[in-house]
Amino acid sequence: MGAEVVEQRAPVVEQRALRARRDPGNPAPVVEQRASVVEQRAPVVEQRALRARRDPSGRDPSGRDPSGRDPGIQPPTRRQLLSWAAGTALAGVALPALAACSAPAPLGKIVVAGGESGGFYLEFAGLLAAALQKYGVAKAAVALSTGGSADNFQRLLAGEATMGAVLADTAAQLMGANPGRVVALGKVYENYLHCIVRRDGGIRTLSDLAGRPVGTGAVGSGTTLTARRILSAAGLGPSSGHPIVERQLGLNDGLAALQDGSIDALLWSGGLPTAAITAANGNFGLRFIELSPVLPTLRSNYGEYYERVLIPANSYVGTPAVGTAGVANLLLCRADLDAETAKRTVRLLVNHARDLIPKSSQGIQFLSRETLISTGGLPLHPAAAEAYREMHG
């Protein structure tokens, strides 16, 4: 009977271990307590076996019944002894199994590819890295300064980053060229395309940029792809009769060039407000050009990754409200990221969203179960999709 009891306990222990692995709120000590119950049987077996091997004369120095038992307790049969021994052996096998069933250890290190210094990408990557470490998704996590979306995607492919922030239009293009290698963990926030000019200049509309030098984002940035599409939709592309003079400059170099007059406009895609743009506006005064008129052409030519959004008045001190193009930012990872890390990251995005939003942010965030999954048809990591289903019930 003892072996049967132990055998019945083993599935219960395994079930508890599985629940502990599925639910972070169900602590491992429950499993350990159940294991200790099995362990405690071993001394009982030994004590009973010793009583069975008492002095052949039947005498007990303690004065107890010559049978070697306490009154009212039946002596163990040979079959019971064998059963208890089998139970002890099973406990020895069960304990390593219990350790194997405990929740997987967090990933050793996670690298989150962000963007340029002073931009929202890098700020978000830093907040996410801190949260990944704080909430036990990884033992260590760091944010990586990069050229932007396209650069982040390439770093994922090369294994230099674990996760990365990538614009949805850039992600669609690069995922199509690299099928099955990179997937999404969720849609995290809205990017606002800024068309930035000097406030003391004479530029008022996109058409005023014809023939002028314009910064279109750093090499390796998603801004470059979006900027070129915007300019093409406005009739300012290379094949048009009024092309701009393109300069591939990132955020900080572009703002410096705008200040010294070597470019007349800078296109930048980022969160709202972007810290470096706030600083530049304070230094020499900026104006933002309306981009809403090109949205119908942009969507018709390149898909529904673009939507009309508003940069509210005084998002940058002294500037009026202006309509522009919004592009969702996705958090991507390699397709071979382990399932447990993917699930833990999704739970973090949902349950600790406040930790991931900069205090100065005025833009749209997508850090909820309902919006995180809206990746514009781009594939989610299978474990991320499962985590969203579990949270939806």
UniProtKB/TrEMBL annotation:
Region (Disordered): 16-77
Superkingdom, taxonomy of origin: Bacteria
Biased composition (Basic and acidic residues): 48-68
A Pfam family matched in the record: NMT1_3
NCBIfam families: TRAP_TAXI
Protein name (Swiss-Prot/TrEMBL): TAXI family TRAP transporter solute-binding subunit
Organism: Arthrobacter silviterrae
